[in-house]
Design a protein that fits this description.
heterodimer, A: mainly beta, seven-stranded mixed sheet, B: five-stranded antiparallel sheet, 11 strands
Chain lengths: 115, 110
């Protein structure tokens, strides 16, 4: 059962192109997150949203934007892709502190290559 | 600023032996998480530790939390090949966001 889905799973694009990564969830969680993972490194938070009307920048938001279209959907855009944005991108969701200790559940990831 | 440090970053294990991964964090937090990641795959939640002295066990893995020392350990008992993966710890900051450690890559060999 794919509670958190990401599309596309793999994407190759060229420098300067605008691309969008999409995340959908069926867990009913209010909180959603976008992370970036570079080889051999941990996860860095790009943007997060605690509900539909709440969007916040994370550690590395420059060059990225997001849209929370609905409780279940959270999209990440690269306005003008550059090679150092080549990475593995993860979407995650959580129900928050009270309901689930803020445990985060991750999607399968999108491998993005910018040439 | 919350910082999370794991060590070692790489751990070569022999099957059947016991090992420990350490996770230190810099500021007070009451929640610590351990995740597992197989190569090219997503992160799978292993444990959520909620209070000082918390201990959780699943199979050959046991995690503990000492909030006073700001330290969590992930102990692996009698390592087997299936445990080869990268293990991450993460700590909740005051805003409810997770700060991840760099991960410990574990390779188990016969």
């Amino acid at each position: 059962d794919a509670d958190v889905t990401q599309t596309p799973r793999n994407r190759i694009t060229k420098t300067g192109k605008r691309i969008m990564l999409e995340c959908s969830q069926t867990k009913g969680h209010d909180r959603m997150y976008w992370y970036r993972q570079d080889p051999g490194l941990g996860l860095q938070l790009i943007y997060y949203s605690f509900d539909v009307k709440d969007i916040n920048k994370g550690e590395i938001s420059d060059g990225y934007s997001v849209s929370r279209q609905a409780q279940a959907k959270f999209s990440l855009s690269l306005e003008s892709a550059i090679p150092n944005q080549t990475a593995l991108y993860f979407c995650a969701t959580s129900a928050g502190v009270i309901l689930s200790y803020n445990e985060q559940f991750f999607g399968p990831g999108t491998r993005l290559t910018v040439l | 600023e919350l910082k999370v440090e794991q060590n070692p970053l790489f751990l070569s294990m022999q099957e059947g032996k016991n090992y420990t991964i350490y996770c230190n964090y810099s500021t007070t937090s009451d929640r610590l998480y351990w995740y597992r990641q197989d190569p090219g795959k997503s992160l799978e939640s292993l444990f959520v530790l909620l209070s000082n002295g918390a201990v959780k066990q699943e199979g050959r893995l046991m995690a503990s939390l000492d909030t006073k020392a700001r330290l969590s350990t992930l102990h692996i008992t009698a390592a087997v090949h299936d445990l080869s993966a990268t293990y991450f710890c993460a700590v909740t900051d005051s805003w409810g966001k997770l700060q991840f450690g760099a991960g410990t890559q574990v390779v188990v060999t016969p």
